[in-house]
Amino acid sequence: MSITLNHRLADKMTEECGVFGIYAPGSDVARLTYYALYALQHRGQESAGIAVADGKTVRGDKGTGLVAEVFADTDRLKRLPGHIALGHVRHAGNCANRAVNAQPLVIRYRHGSLAIAHNGNLINGRHLRQQLETEGSIFQTTTDSEIIAHLVARSGEPELTTALKRSLPKVRGAYAFVLMTPEQLIGLRDPHGIRPLSLGKTPSGYVLASETCAFDTIGAEFVRDIEPGEMVTIDRNGLHFEKFAPAAPHAMCIFEFIYFARADSNLLGKNVHLVRKRLGRRLAAEHPVEADLVAGVPDSSLSVASGVAEQLGLPYEMGFNKNRYIGRTFIQPTPELRTLGVQLKLNPVRQIVAGKRVVIVDDSIVRGTTSRHIVEMLRKAGAREVHMRISSPPVIAPCCYGLEISSPTELIAARMSVDEIAANIGADSLGFLSEEGLLEAVDLPAEGFCQACFNGCYLVKADDQWDLDHNGCEKEREVQS
Question: Which of 67, 262, 296, 315 has its CA 20 to 30 A from that of 80?
Answer without folding.
Answer: 262
